[in-house]
Design brief:
Layout: E1 5-6, E2 23-25, E3 31-32, E4 47-49, H1 50-79, H2 83-122, H3 124-144, H4 146-157, H5 163-173, E5 176-177, H6 196-208, H7 215-223, H8 225-229, H9 234-245, H10 249-254, H11 256-262, H12 268-280, H13 289-301
Parallel strand pairs: 1-5
Antiparallel strand pairs: 2-3, 2-4
Helix pairs in contact: 1-2, 3-4, 4-5, 6-9, 12-13
The structure holds zinc ion.
Zinc ion binds at residues 25, 27-28, 30, 39, 41-42, 44, 46.
Amino acid sequence: MDKKKPVQLRPYNKTRYVYQKLRVCKHCHNFTILWEDSCAYCKRNALVPVMELAEKMAKRSMQSDRLLFYIIGLSAVLLSQTFLQIVISFACMVVLLAWLWLIQRRVLHSETLYALNKLIRSHQKQIHEGLDLNKATASAAIKEDAQLGYEIVREIASLVRNDRIRLQQIVLLQSFSLRKDMELELEPLLLDEFDPDLAAYIGEIAKIKRELISSKAIQYLLEHESSILRMEQGRQIMIDAAGAAVRKKKYIDTFPDFISRYADGLPRYRFLRLYQIVRRNPGLSWNGLRDRVSAIYNEHYRSDPDFQKWD
Ligand SMILES: [Zn+2]
């Protein structure tokens, strides 16, 4: 991408349950993961969150249970032959109904989730069709407004997980100028295949959000190392990722050869971090990484005062 666009992405709301963001049209049962006001299919203002619908379903089934209790209790009252029996039957009915009501209140949430699960299972086809409609909206938006397109694809990706969607997200992200304060992700975007946009994205993340460089991301870089090194900025991507990895000893333990290969390219403050970890662990050689770090230290940082404080 030649010119990166500055963007202000809308915050992304993560939900506890995957399907929680879906809304369904009360009129035509079209599903959507997006935030439009009216149904994209029948154009009516009839979209309700699936959670709301599931809660209604759960309440309705609870109501029928209460009705059944009520009928049984009432029959007992009607069949009673003495006044005492009437009083006892009536009292039992009231106590049981109150008890049932209390229990139902307590289980409403789990019953709602159960109803949601049933709703999703029985509407698989409609959900797929709804998401297809959402994808068409995304494709149209991408052409007009890349930022809106990305936000739409990001929502779809919470339900549709495949490489095509991931790639679409990566390409769009690579057209933006990324900043530290943005809500970015890496692991969910990792592909199986080599992709130069993804490699470049990892390189940027390594600079602005080091904490996202995890074992999986490093493994991706190592699997495709030779292809990445053929990229113009390939070596720098590997160096930046190594610089992010040295924030934790566990990555040095797991990938000592990788860090060793790129240690001489690390900027001073990242090398300092690596040097400190190496000094604090005198018993570990990390397959030659220790010697490599010593050699770089001797060559460049011997007289650097910061390198004398490592504990
Ligand atoms: Zn509709």
